[in-house]
Amino acid sequence: MARQDILHLLTALPGEYVSGEKISQQLNVTRASVWKQIKLLKEEGFEIEAHTNKGYCIIKTPLSLNEWVIKQMLSTFSLGHSIILQDELPSTNIKAKELAREGGSHGEVILARRQRAGRGRMQRGWESPEGGLWMSVILRPKLSLADASKVTLAASVAIVDALAELYQLQVGIKWPNDLIYNGHKLAGILGEVVGEWNSVQTLILGMGINANFPREKLSMATKPTTLRDILGYEVDLNKLTATILRHLENQVADLEKNLFEELCFNWTARAVGLGSEVKVLRGEQIFHGIFHGISPDGELLLSTEQGMERFSAGEVQLRSKSGQYF
Ligand code: BTN
Prior knowledge:
Blueprint: H1 3-12, H2 20-27, H3 31-43, E1 47-51, E2 55-60, H4 67-73, E3 83-89, H5 92-101, E4 109-115, E5 133-139, H6 148-167, E6 172-174, E7 178-181, E8 184-194, E9 202-209, H7 227-231, H8 237-256, H9 260-270, E10 277-282, E11 285-294, E12 300-304, E13 307-311, E14 315-318
Parallel strand pairs: 3-4
Antiparallel strand pairs: 1-2, 4-5, 5-9, 6-7, 7-8, 8-9, 10-11, 10-14, 11-12, 12-13
């Protein structure tokens, strides 16, 4: 008997008790083994009330990642119908790349409760303690290689919109796809193309959100923040995952319909630092100018003394009121 069978029975009639006898009969197992599974579900974070005469009733699902709960909350067509959740991985992006090379399909999601060697942009690491949302999605979108970077822009819009929908937070995007709350980094995105982008175009979209842990768990160099620090409570990581996947699916569908202008508009409406003085770091080079927006190809437009410069890679630093760049 799978634990999921019990969950299906318990959630068939929400808020109602289901007797141990009914579960044992329907699943053809002993009542003792039903009880054992209920105990394991409780350990996984399900709040289950047991009543001597009435049976069992699910009061609350866990806030921590749970594959079954995510699937119940999912309203997507193609993303997240196959989910791999592990307690620990070196990096969900690395695992997703392996799976993609072995034929993993569009929409497969890889989640880890912790990452030992999380990867960030510009060959940096990404600290990934327990409580965060560390997720990679295998995407095989109908797009050209030139459009690959637009998917990461689309993902940043998707995450901002999910956070606004669930927690009414106003998160900004720092080019290309750092998610910033009040000047502090809340989340990051790492898009990686797998193999040759020819007939089968595969992109691994890695998303990391500092969620249910205090920012003190991270080194302070990147000025991080976490959802727990902002909101003062722990969020439901399953709901967050399902909501991000729904927004992401819509964004990618729009891109496939060539609606880049719409994405460009949506991205710009959420961008931080527009019209302000910024510093762009590209390799060893540093450029100063005014952040003008993004081009139809998703490049950063910087208005400098020498004219308009375009950047397809690099890092933006914003100027704070005190004149410091961050
Ligand atoms: C950045 O540098 O801002 C991008 C960070 C991306 C982190 C996520 S966490 C899930 C996925 N797996 C990784 O190893 N990296 C990405």
